[in-house]
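for the writeup, i need someone to sanity check this before i put it in the appendix. the sequnce is what the collaborator sent (i think, or maybe the updated version? ugh). structure was predicted straight from it, no edits. if anything looks off just tell me and ill rerun, i have time this weekend
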Amino acid sequence: MAKAALAAVFLACTVIVQAETPANERNSWFGIRISQALWEPAVFNELDKLRQIGLQNSALFTGSLLANPADYFDYGNARQKMPFAELLFVFAGESNRGTINLGFGGSKPTGLDTSGLQYLNSQTFNIVSISNANQFSIFQSAELKHYEFGYDHEFYPFRGSPSLLSDLGFVLGLQLARDEFFADQYNTGTIRIDSGTMGSITSSSTSQINSFGSTEHNITTGDIHLGLVYRKKIGERFELEAGASFGAGKGQSNAIFTNFSVLTLGTSSFPFETSTEYSTDGDIRTSRFHLGMAYLLSEGMAINLHYGVTNRFYTPTSGSVKAGGIVTIENPASGPFYSQKDKLSTIGLEFQARF
């Protein structure tokens, strides 16, 4: 079905080009764009927000029947520089233009870390346990990847008229994207446990807690966007383009945290392994802006200096949490749900072979 739809789009664009493009103009092209990207990846920066949606499952850790969700803070604000490559197929006529793009970027960052506070107040019948943990996580052997595929259709209703609006058009597009993060990690911190009955706390202990583990997180989104685009020829060899659009759609997120821990109490150490999987579905809102200037080297070749910014805001609306060690429990995610922001800025050169 997807291949048939893509073939239909390709055929429609080809018909438009044949019908509208003058014989002496080459407005269609195949392009390769090589960019330097600055990425603020939600797939890493917003990891702790996932833990907010169902930490009542932490009750399994203490053997409790009831527990209040934990609190985490200090969400990441890491920015990653990475190379980003795109393939573009542009089919243009006098008043219509279709663009298919396929992009990929990735990096292996070093020095990633997060810190946070976990608070858990649990109760089993009349026995109360209050835990406060400060944790610092260092990520090693990390990989970040970004994939995207999209189609934009531009329509210029005033093209050919003498008005100032002749170079202004509308753009309607579909964009699919997937982000992936994987890393080994080392966690260290302290945990304080106060326990007793509902009437009084009878014991308190502070211990060091260390663990090794891995984190996998991916976010997949799809949105339809609508906006304005402006394209104008300047002299014989320059072409200016600028555009902005806003979109909405759906997204899905999946994260797996695995830990092999050693809990030290006094002179005794206790190893244990736990894993937690978060799966969510939600809404996506997007905004995009781009600016470019192309220079025609010849009739069949051009080079384009391009700058673009894409913002995505993913807000989960439902999901599930699967947590445990020897025993695994899966529950619906009860919230709260927080928006996760992702920003990708690129600047680079596009080499165009025109036809």
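Confidence is low (pLDDT under 50) at residues 13-23, 55-75. The helical segments are 2-20, 42-45, 47-51, 59-62.
thx in advance!!
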